[in-house]
Model the fold of this input.
Amino acid sequence: MHTSATLFSLVALLPLGAASGVAWELSAGAAAAAVMLAVSSVRIISTGEEALVERLGRFERRLHPGLSFVIPGIERVSIYASIREQVLDVPPQPCITSDNAPLSADAVVFFRIKDLARARYAVDDFRACVTNLVLTQLRSEIGQLTLDQTFAARERLNQKLLEEANAVAAGWGIDVTRIEVRDIHPSPEIVSSMEMQMAAERKKRAAILQSEGEKAALINAAEGRREATVLGARGEQERLQMEARGLADSLDRIAASLEGGASGGAAADGGAAARRDAARLLLHRQHVAALASVAGSSNAKVLLFPTHAKQLANAAVLGDAVAGNA
Done:
């Protein structure tokens, strides 16, 4: 006030024309300062974002999407931040499994700022804190699993990391919505061992499949031989049965012929005798056929006829007689 009064006093001492010019310049400068002051107090917040205002270094209020004003020189915007879901890459970190297998693992964290004031004032750098929190938990959880379990239980690992991260990040105003273990890379030595193990397992499966195929082939062949043997035996049985029936029919016919040619006094026991003669006739005929076959062989040099050659001749005559009666 003292300075303003001094300026107006000086203006009053000036000549009238000069005084009016100085007054106009002062008015224009004050108007420009007022416009600049008004512009600097305007804050526009976009949708999905939020800002915090501090007054004289102390948190005062939140600025939501839309047009807001702050008092220049007294209030200032402490932080602009997005309250939408954000993604945070966790860099690869060396880990050791419970069976002492070294590997490298990284993850992706999806989070949302639930309370911007707590994220600003409860922790220095919430992004760095979330990253290091997930890294520590990732190492701890992998250290409780074997190498094979790290590949098979990834879903359970993600859920465990999410629960533990939310338990801590809730105090920072951060809501972790999802954690995904992205890549798990064992050391080159373990990868080589795993490839050898997989190759051996595949060879084992191939050998098992081949042996099972050979077993099935042998079983099928054995069953085929058994069925062929059974069918052959059945055929042989039917052949012998047919031969036996034919032989019996021949005996009956020859016996009937002999019995018909016998005398009437011998009719009482002529049937049995006729059957014996018929059987004897067939045997002698087969004997003669066998001798003829031996005689026709190229290796036969000497033939020794049996002492009952006369019986053979009689059998031949008897056969001719039977044929004549027939």
Summary: The longest strand covers residues 174-186. Confidence is low (pLDDT under 50) at residues 1-14, 264-268, 321-326. The two ends are 169 Å apart (CA to CA). Residues 188-261 form the longest helix (74 residues).
